[in-house]
Every structure is written in C-alpha cells, then in structure tokens.
Amino acid sequence: CALLRKRLKHKVENDDTIKRLESLQFEFSIIKAATDNFSDNNKLGQGGFGSVYKGVLPNGRDIAVKRLSECSAQGEEEFKNEILLVAKLQHRNLVSLLGFCSEGTERILVYEFARNGSLDHVIFDATRSAQLNWEMRYKIINGIARGILYLHEDSRLKIIHRDLKANNVLLDEEMNPKISDFGLARLFVLDQTQCITRRVAGTYGYMAPEYASQNRFSAKSDVFSFGVLVLEIVTGKKNSWLSNSNELEHLLSQAWKNWRKRTISNLIDNTLRNGSTSGIIRCIHIGLLCVQENAADRPTMASVVLMLSSHSLSLPEP
Ligand code: ADP
User: Fold this and answer.
1) Which residues pair with 171 in a beta bridge?
2) Which residues of the chain have pLDDT under 70?
C-alpha cells in the first residue's frame, strides 16, 4: 500500500512536470521577433555556452534569451538537463525559466529578465557599488542563502549548484538576488552526501579545496562558495584579492577587535560606513565560517539562514 502510494505520488509529480514542460514550450518565431532576430543591439553578454539576448514578448514582458551556439551531444544533454531540472524549481531567489524552444539545430532557453544584471557588475564597479548600501547588501546575502537552502533542502530534488559565483547571481529591479546558471552540467541530483566527479566544473577562487584538489563535492562545497560570495559582497573585493593578501585571516580578528572599538570603517567597503555594525560583523563571521578548510566544520545552509536572521550576537568568538 505504501509502495502504491509512493508510485502514485511519483506519477502525479511526473504528470505535473510534464504539464509544466508543455506549458514552457515557445515558438521559435516568437523568440526571433522578441529579440529582433537576435540582433547585436540586444546582446546582453556571452556565456560559457552561447549568447544571451534581451527580448520583449508580445505581451510586453521582458525576457532574457540564452541561445546555444552549437548543439553537440553534450550540449543537447545539458539543454535537456536544464529544462527538466529547472521546470521543477520555483523560488524567488532562483532565476525562473519561462520557456524553451528547439528548432533544427537551435536550442533556446527563455528566462525572466533581471534588470540589474549580474552581481559582479554591481559589487566590483566603483560607481555602482557606491550606491549599494548595507541594507541592500544584506538583502542580497540573505536572498542568496535562501536560494541555496532551497536547492539543498527544500526543493523536491536535492541539488548542489557547483558554480556559485558573483556572475551567476542576477539582480532584479528591486535588487533581489536570483541564482542562475544551474542546470548546464552543474546541477547534481543528490543521492549521496558526497560525490566524486571526473570533470570539475566550477570556478577557482570560489571552489572548495576538496573539490578543487580531489574532485570531491557535497552541499558543503556550495557553502564554501557562498562564504566567498559573502566576503566579496561585504568587502567589495574580489576573492583573488581576499586570498592573496592574507587579509582573510586577519579579517575576523580585526572585526572582533574593531567591534569592541565600535568602528570597522577601515575593514569594509566605504559605502558601508552607515551600515549596521553588528550585521556587518555577523556576515563577515558567517562568511569565514563557510570558507573553513575542512568541509565538516562549515555550517549547513540551514544554519547559515538561521544565523543570518538571528538578531542576537551570540556567535562564538574565534
Ligand atoms: P556566464 O556563463 O559568463 O555566467 P551567462 O551565460 O549566464 O554568462 O550570461 C551572460 C551575461 O548575460 C551575464 O553576465 C548577464 O549580464 C546577462 N544575463 C544572463 N541572464 C540574464 C537574465 N536572466 N537577465 C538579465 N541579464 C542576464
């Protein structure tokens, strides 16, 4: 009886997915018209697998269109993987897949349009980062954490992103973060807590040590990348700077020393001078907990979310 119920539930879930997939199919002519025939004027950027265009649907909705440049067997696999997985995911901090189309050798993915582009263009750009106050940065950190928690624990699939980085986080018009680029060989359905891969797909600087050196990855490798992201968002400095300057090691002790002095203005991005000191310290602390060498010492995303929302400063002193 339990088996039957399980099978029935599985069937209902599959039927739901099929219905959703059917509703996601776009006509190629609509996408062509929406992007002005993939005109260079509408090009937003070049990704690892093809170009991204801005488009407008006949109903006025803005979209981002990813066009696969060539469809190799692996590209085809990744395209299907993206659609099948993303069709099952819905969260305000994950970029939504609005549809797809496939005609001849063309493979197209249609996403919601994130008006403020990717996070790296905001935090590492002096003019744009100057407008990013502490509340916004905190909102971005918190949103990314919730998006990852959903991938790891709350979606029906247990998913490890494997390539979390500033240019895979998009920002909508209200600066809500949307995690993107999951699905193209980077998503992994978790049936074990730790997996070994033959092909390391990720980005040095954000990659956990066990993943970079031994190809071992788990949800904790995403936690590491999240920690790097947090430190980048708070300091406004790229991970290459953070890891090469020994600054990371000093950051936490400095934070605590300065916390006692109630000033941390030399430590963090200038724009944060008016930010909540305790919030900033908490985020630096969380970032550093996440980038610990040993995966087992890193917190889970559930405890990260809890720590972020906790208003008490009862964090252990390092
Ligand atoms: P990469 O592989 O370098 O991360 P992507 O293929 O994801 O690049 O995207 C290339 C560029 O297109 C990004 O840097 C981003 O600025 C833009 N972009 C991608 N998706 C969207 C979207 N949904 N909304 C707005 N801009 C987007």
Assistant:
1) 177
2) 1-18, 20, 48-49, 69-75, 155-156, 182-201, 241-277, 311-318
137: Cβ contacts below 8 Å, ≥ 6 apart: 233, 234, 272, 275, 283
DSSP 8-state class, residue 21: H
pLDDT reported for residue 42: 96
Quote the pLDDT of residue 156: 65
Q: Which two tokens stand for residue 150?
A: 């959903």
User: How far is the C-alpha of 169 from the C-alpha of 64, rounded, in Å?
Assistant: 14
| Angle of helix 277-290 versus helix 301-309 axis, rounded to 10 | 170
Binding-site residues for ATP, in ranges, read 66
- CA distance linking residue 55 with residue 64, whole number of Å: 6
Nearest CA to ligand 1 atom 9: 47
Nearest CA to ligand 1 atom 5: 47
Is there a contact between 301 and 227 (Cβ–Cβ < 8 Å)? no
- ipTM associated with this complex: 0.94
181 lines ligand 1 (CB under 6 A): yes
Task: Quote the pTM value.
Answer: 0.84
Judge whether 55 and 67 are in contact, CB under 8 Å: no
Ligand 1 pocket check for 228: Cβ under 6 Å: no
